[in-house]
Design brief:
elongated; mainly alpha
Length: 88
């Protein structure tokens, strides 16, 4: 079955097909490396946003604030002894 339009509105069908071909030709190790690089970039962007919002935050606080974006307050208190609701 051939797609009539790409999954993303800003991508041509030809570009999308080529991307799928590239992914299909990658080894599992290459796919994992690409994923790891994307995760590192996402973490760096999140950290940059936190640092911009909290310019005096040290590395630990940046880590905790990033973790608090995905974990609930109770988990943050239990695992890290840090409450995002009372952090200034």
């Amino acid at each position: 079955m051939t797609a009539e339009r790409p999954l993303a509105d800003d991508t041509s069908l030809d570009a999308e097909r080529r991307q799928f071909e590239i992914w299909a030709g990658m080894t599992p190790a290459q796919k994992f490396e690409a994923f790891a690089q994307l995760m590192a970039m996402a973490q760096a962007l999140a950290d940059a946003g936190i640092r911009r919002r909290y310019p005096h935050a040290d590395e630990r606080e940046v880590f905790l604030r990033r973790a608090a974006r995905t974990l609930d307050a109770e988990t943050m208190r239990r695992c890290y002894g840090w409450d995002p609701r009372t952090a200034s």
